[in-house]
Amino acid sequence: MSKFNPGFDISWETGPLGFNYGEGVFGPEVEERRLDDIRKSLRDPNADGPDIVYAIAMDVGKEVHKEILAEKMLLFGVMTYAKGRLGDELIRSQGHIHKISSHSNWAPAEIYEVWEGEAIIYMQETAKDNPGKCYAVYAKAGDVVIVPPNWAHATISANPNVALTFGAWCDREYGFEYEEVRAHKGLAWYPLLDGDDIKWEHNEHYEDTGLIKKEPSDYSYLGLQKGVPVYEQFAKNLDLFQFVSKPHLKKDEWENFIP
């Protein structure tokens, strides 16, 4: 397992996929997402791949924070992906947009933190015919990537030989909109494997607005500390990630956002 310490006592397994909660840590029964569950969002809906594509546990953390997280409408989710590929594609989540939350009237932001493996957080401004700016943000263990409100996005395992595990700050009233993405047969760019290299193929159901490939931005202007686990940052400042469930607090920062 990676030496990365997420800031609370949790461990992850890859055979079978799942999580173990340590002393003083709460968490739900792990859910599994199977290949048949996500076929509609794949470039090739008939692709072969691992039967269980990823495992997910939404709402984990330290017992001492349980009530505080509920009050702030925040939750911390964790996911681990299987090794391998989905046909010619890298293993990834389904492309989606976050539903508008009733308590904020905003689609929430989301904060990803890679724990083990290599990730690409892919995101585009909309799931309309013109997707706007499209980004592929390459991240390794310890890196943090923020997805702003209303953007369509997916999390991709960049290395088929290593299981990807990551955590994410989410709105407690989380929900996903798939309709527009599925109507376009996925997101605007497909991550394909060409030998050992990643090749991006444009999805012809969108206008081609280009793809920006980059490393994560410096989010210090949002109060984040680079190199410090995001759960640990929350424990030290319980209001730090309130903008995830109340995105209006950073309304100006979402304008012309660069992930």
CATH architectural designation: Sandwich
Task: Characterize the overall form.
Answer: globular
Order of helices and strands: EEEEHEHEEEEEEEEEEEHEEEHHH
CATH class reads: Mainly Beta
Determine Rg (CA atoms, Å). Answer: 17 Å
Q: Roughly what percent helix?
A: 10-25%
Structural class: mainly beta
Low-confidence stretches: none
The largest β sheet comes out as:
7 strands, antiparallel
Number of strands: 19
Task: Give the helix/strand layout.
Blueprint: E1 10-14, E2 17-21, E3 25-26, E4 31-34, H1 35-38, E5 52-62, H2 66-71, E6 74-81, E7 85-86, E8 89-90, E9 97-98, E10 110-116, E11 118-124, E12 134-140, E13 144-147, E14 152-157, E15 165-171, E16 176-177, H3 179-183, E17 189-194, E18 197-202, E19 212-214, H4 230-236, H5 242-245, H6 251-254
Observed structural traits:
Jelly Rolls; 19 strands
Written overview of the protein:
There is one protein chain. This protein has 259 residues and is mainly beta. The chain has a single domain, classed as Jelly Rolls (Sandwich). It has helices at 35-38, 66-71, 179-183, 230-236, 242-245, 251-254, and strands spanning 10-14, 17-21, 25-26, 31-34, 52-62, 74-81, 85-86, 89-90, 97-98, 110-116, 118-124, 134-140, 144-147, 152-157, 165-171, 176-177, 189-194, 197-202, 212-214. Strands 3, 4, 5, 6, 10, 13 and 15 form a seven-stranded antiparallel sheet that branches. A hairpin with a 2-residue loop joins strand 1 (10-14) and strand 2 (17-21). The radius of gyration is 17 Å and the shape is globular. The chain starts with 9 loop residues before the first strand and ends in a 5-residue tail after the last helix. The model has no long low-confidence stretch (mean pLDDT 95).
